[in-house]
Write a structure and sequence with these properties.
Length: 226
């Protein structure tokens, strides 16, 4: 079942959209503020985001930019929704990376149709659901990591770190970049947090933990050769 996040501060519209989505066979969660949305993103990434431009604590275009700047959410389908119907607002949303645009008030059947159309369109260019490195397989649909026939139990942050590395083999990340990508920009902890999670991730991966290299004075990267 595909997961849709609805970020909308109008309670009535949000609840109506969630009802329509669930009635149409989607799993759906709604958020009134950007803060609630980012907290949820740290737990589970959806298949599509329906994003209002005007929010009480942030604006949708800023959220859109942040999602597109993050390697882990760069291809996440996003439909912008706003009461503003000017050509400028529509162009700004699409040029900033939105996959589609809905102008309020919109009908629920139109919303469902647009969502399904975007999901079909991006599905053509969907990344391989399995990321492989030797006998290590990260399945993005099942949200599992296996080595050989053994499943490796990882925390959400460890899984997100490994997925980021496996999607970017050979690329070095600073600790700040890892914090921003995995923990989110709202996280104000120390970069030591990254080191601790890398250490536990390496231990859980056993011999495959050696693929995660320390880049002295910078951060970490995953290489194809130990």
């Amino acid at each position: 079942m595909q997961m849709i996040y609805c970020v909308e501060d109008d309670r009535n519209l949000r609840e109506l959209a969630l009802y329509a989505l669930k009635s149409s066979g989607f799993d759906a969660h709604g958020f009134e503020t950007a803060k609630e949305f980012w907290q949820a993103m740290g737990t589970e990434k959806p298949d599509l985001v329906l994003l209002d431009i005007m929010l009480p604590d942030d604006d949708g275009l800023s959220i859109l930019k942040r999602l597109r700047d993050n390697p882990d959410t760069r291809r996440l389908p996003i439909i912008m929704a706003t009461a503003k119907g000017t050509e400028y607002d529509k162009v700004m949303g699409l040029e900033s990376g939105a996959d589609d645009y809905l102008v309020k008030p919109f009908g629920m059947m139109e919303m469902i149709s647009r969502i399904r159309a975007v999901l079909r369109r991006v599905g053509i260019h969907e990344e391989d659901p399995q990321l492989c490195l030797g006998e290590m397989i990260l399945d993005t649909r099942k949200h599992t990591v296996t080595i050989g026939h053994q499943q490796i139990e990882l925390t959400m942050k460890e899984y997100s770190l490994l997925k980021l590395f496996m999607n970017n083999l050979g690329r070095a990340f600073t600790r700040d970049q890892l914090l921003s990508s995995v923990w989110g920009e709202e996280y104000f902890g120390e970069t030591r947090t990254v080191d601790v999670h890398i250490s536990t991730l390496r231990a859980k991966l056993g011999s495959y933990g050696k693929f995660i290299k320390t880049v002295r004075g910078l951060g970490y990267r995953m290489e194809e050769d130990q």
